[in-house]
Amino acid sequence: MLITNAKIHTMAGDTIDNGWIHIKANKIAAIGSRTDKPIKDEEVLDVHGAGVYPGFIDAHTHLGMWEDGLCFEGDDGNEETDPITPQLRAIDAINPMDRCFSEALAAGITTVVTGPGSANPIGGQLAAMKTAGSRVDDMIVKAPVAMKMALGENPKSVYHGKSQTPSTRMATAALIREELFKAKRYMEDLERSKNDEDFEAPEFDIKSEALLPVLRGETEVHFHAHRSDDIYTAIRIANEFHLNYVIVHGTEGHLIADTLAKEGVRVLAGPYLCDRSKPELKNQTPANPGILSKAGVFTAIITDHPVIPLQYLPTCAALAVREGMDYEEALKAITINPAKICGIDQRVGSIQVGKDADLVIFDSDPLQMTSKPVHVIADGKIML
């Protein structure tokens, strides 16, 4: 396919005012301007000056884990029987037939990170996947993309109701540390057994096995943390174990933005297009992403679907702009920034040769409330 007469917002450099994009084998094969000679003998999609953007990305959702219109039958996001469950994999719970996938795709969101909720201090493995498709295995971009850990009210509220640890923030942090120490010892014993024939390998431990990539820095940790003290606890634990980490939500990040910038913390900011439904959200504000970004914190915007339906991700970016975020930074916060934060930018997040042909086309400002995509292209196929 050849897309012509396009204003290409690459999110990787300058905008091409009158350009073309050649798609071949589901990838972006070439990009050019009107001064170049376009590829011949291809199906042509003339967009008549419309803006072409990378497919939007939401880096924190529970898509397919809490199914639309269902209660317990479709609730597969929290295993509330054990506070430590690193061995759980989102890919085993996602229902790609949930209609919210098609609603997200129609709004131009072509990639999401989805996974367990925040009931458990260690909840399980998140997956990055496309919103187009019908089989999870074929939709995966990267799995696991991160390990979910949670601090603050959610774990203590869930297990306090069961008269079980953790019922305090101290216990939540202690459980995470305990499991990381166990996994570290397990890793050391495995290595020793490989090098010392007289040393017996440890008995297989699926929880420790799941945490090995985390301890090696191969898999990120996504820490659920709203309050500033919980954010600092996440940083403390991450530094103790040399974890590659990201703060998810960061609701009070705007209160400590300069410190987060100095620490090099990355934040997936949101949701904020919702009410302050619990005490730790009392300082929630849609100005948060802009304040973080201007302070030098690498920031992406998230919906936390189904807290905010995924199709309103561009609306969340628009609200951030209204409250002070730079417009281009807001676009980056739903395209290249989440891709870089989640380590999937080699495939998605910008319009560059070799990347997946995931594109969304608007004939108006994509961050206007009244705007809808005129076309959505996923893996080189026109979906809308």
Low-confidence stretches: none
Cα distance, first to last residue? 15 Å
Radius of gyration over alpha carbons? Answer: 21 Å
For the residues shown, what is the average pLDDT? 97
CATH superfamily of the largest domain: Metal-dependent hydrolases
CATH architecture of the largest domain: Alpha-Beta Barrel
* Integer tally of domains: 2
- Return the structural class: alpha/beta
> Beta-sheet strand percentage?
15-25%
Q: For the report, how would you describe the main beta sheet?
A: 8 strands, mixed
Shape: globular
Report the total helices.
11
Order of helices and strands: EEEEEEHEEHEHHHEHEHEHEHHHEEE
Q: What is the CATH domain class of the largest domain?
A: Alpha Beta
The number of strands is 16
Q: Helix content range of the residues, please?
A: 25-40%
Give your account of this protein's structure:
This protein has 384 residues and is an alpha/beta fold. It has two domains: 1-54 and 350-384, Urease, subunit C, domain 1, CATH 2.30.40.10; 56-348, Alpha-Beta Barrel (TIM Barrel), CATH 3.20.20.140. Helix content is 28%, strand content 24%. The protein is built from eleven helices and 16 strands. It has helices at residues 99-106, 136-139, 153-160, 169-195, 206-215, 228-241, 257-263, 288-295, 313-322, 327-332, 336-341, and strands at residues 2-8, 16-24, 27-33, 44-46, 51-54, 56-61, 109-114, 122-130, 140-150, 220-225, 245-249, 266-269, 298-301, 359-362, 375-378, 381-382. The strands form two sheets. Strands 1, 2, 3, 4, 5, 14, 15 and 16 form an eight-stranded mixed beta sheet that branches. An eight-stranded mixed beta sheet has the order 6-7-8-9-10-11-12-13. α4 (169-195) packs across α5 (206-215) and α4 (169-195) runs parallel beside α6. The mean pLDDT is 97. This is Imidazolonepropionase. Its EC number is 3.5.2.7. Residues 52-382 form the Amidohydrolase-related domain.
